[in-house]
Each structure stands twice: as structure tokens, then as C-alpha cells.
Specification:
239 residues, alpha/beta, TIM Barrel, 8-stranded parallel β-barrel, 8 strands, globular
């Protein structure tokens, strides 16, 4: 029987955008108990590899391993098999890889000892309609996101990564059980930085996001734990 990992009640996953393992561990230890989980991506993985991921997992918080696999089905299946047993709660692939690739990723995860949630990336939050037009996708980002979310659901994936603006449309198209992981989250008291399709934590949570991925508004402060607590209070959560 395939067992899906349970997501935490606390919806905040803090993005550790650093190649520095010691810094990532220090942030994780400081934020333990104040956030629901940790996200590490390509920068961290390229510098620290599987052993670095294990070090973060060993700290005892759910981990979103954000590597965004996108290749031919057999290669993606092999990549999923290679990372699935590292202990991550969530891994992801690009939905644009197509149905065969998505199915291969899901099947590989289901054969792992510790089955992670497999989430599809729809349209990166750094892109808007004009960017999509340049690369030949002459439809609004919102429509493309919903299309890719429906494709991911049809191939048995657990949910998608989407921007805040697409939460309700995906809920309508894919239902309440489909997991929505939402970056592009910026409290009113921080800068928007390099992401274009953004909103506040409260708005995204109220719209139906399951996980809020928040990085620099927490890690670029003098007191990351205090920043996380402030966001939790805005969301109405008790520590």
C-alpha cells in the first residue's frame, strides 16, 4: 500500500536559498517549532548533494526538495528513485515534461521505501504573460497553470506549485484534496524581489493554499524566528 506523508498543520515552509550547509542547519535549528517545514533547492543540492539533504532531514522537520526535474521519462524516473529515499516529504517535477514523464515520476515514487508527495511545477512565479509570449506560449499564465494542474492530476500527482493568483482557479478545476504549494509569498512589510505573481501570506492561505513557501522575508531578517512568528500571528496560528 502506498502511504502519502502527512503535511503539517503549520503551513509555512521556509526556503533556505543558500549553498552553505552550516548556515542552512543554523536557520533550520533556529526556526524549528516556528515553521511547518524547510525547502531546499538546486543551489543547496548542487553544493551539498544527498548528504546535505540527509543532514537537514535529520533535524526533524518536513523537507520540500525543490529540484524541478524535467527530462525524458526514463531519466526523470531514475532521478526520482535516487532522491525519494532521502527522507524528503515533497519532491517536484515540471508539469511541462508531459504525461509520460509525470506518470514515470509518480510510479518511481510509489516504489520507494519512503514515498514522498510528487508535486508538479506549473509556471514559475518569476514569469508573467509577457515572458510566456516570448517563449511561444501565447496564452495567459493563469490559463497555462490550470491546464498543467489538470494534466498533473490526471497522471496521479499529488498537487502542484502555483502562484497565489491561480489558487482558486486550480481549486475549482482540481478539487480540495489536490495539494497547492505556493511561493511568491510576501508580507506587506517586505519587498517583492524577483517574483512577479505575488501576494500576502494571509491572502494565499485564505484562498486555499496548503503550503506557503517563504524565503527572504524570514531568512534576510536579523531575527528569522521572530519574522516567522509574526507571519504565523497574521495567519491566526498559535505557536
Amino acid at each position: 500500500m502506498t502511504i502519502h506523508p502527512k503535511l503539517p498543520t503549520n503551513p509555512i515552509f521556509v526556503a533556505l536559498d543558500t549553498p552553505d550547509l552550516d548556515k542552512a542547519i543554523a536557520w533550520s535549528e533556529e526556526l524549528h517549532g516556528h515553521v511547518g517545514g524547510i525547502k531546499v533547492g538546486l543551489e543547496f543540492f548542487s553544493a551539498n548533494g544527498a548528504e546535505g539533504v540527509r543532514r537537514i532531514v535529520d533535524l526533524g522537520m518536513p523537507l520540500f526538495l525543490d529540484l524541478k526535474f524535467h527530462d525524458i521519462p526514463n531519466t526523470v524516473a531514475g532521478a526520482v528513485r535516487a532522491v525519494a529515499d532521502l527522507g524528503a516529504t515533497i519532491i517536484n517535477v515540471h508539469a511541462a515534461g508531459g504525461p509520460a514523464m509525470l506518470a514515470a515520476a509518480r510510479e518511481a515514487a510509489e516504489k520507494s521505501v519512503t514515498r514522498p508527495l510528487v508535486i508538479a511545477v506549473t509556471v514559475l512565479t518569476s514569469l508573467d504573460d509577457s515572458d510566456l509570449s516570448v517563449v511561444g506560449q501565447a496564452i495567459p499564465a493563469r490559463d497555462q497553470v490550470v491546464r498543467l494542474a489538470q494534466l498533473a492530476k490526471s497522471e496521479g500527482l499529488d498537487g502542484v506549485v502555483c502562484s497565489p493568483g491561480e489558487i482558486r482557479a486550480i481549486r475549482d478545476a482540481c478539487g480540495d484534496k489536490f495539494k497547492l504549494i505556493v511561493p511568491g509569498i510576501r508580507p506587506n512589510w517586505t519587498a517583492s524581489s524577483d517574483q512577479k505573481r505575488i501576494t500576502t501570506p494571509s491572502q494565499a492561505h485564505n484562498d486555499g493554499a496548503d503550503i506557503l513557501v517563504i524565503g527572504r522575508p524570514i531568512t534576510d531578517t536579523k531575527d528569522p524566528a521572530a519574522a516567522a512568528i509574526r507571519i504565523l500571528e497574521e495567519l491566526g496560528f498559535c505557536r
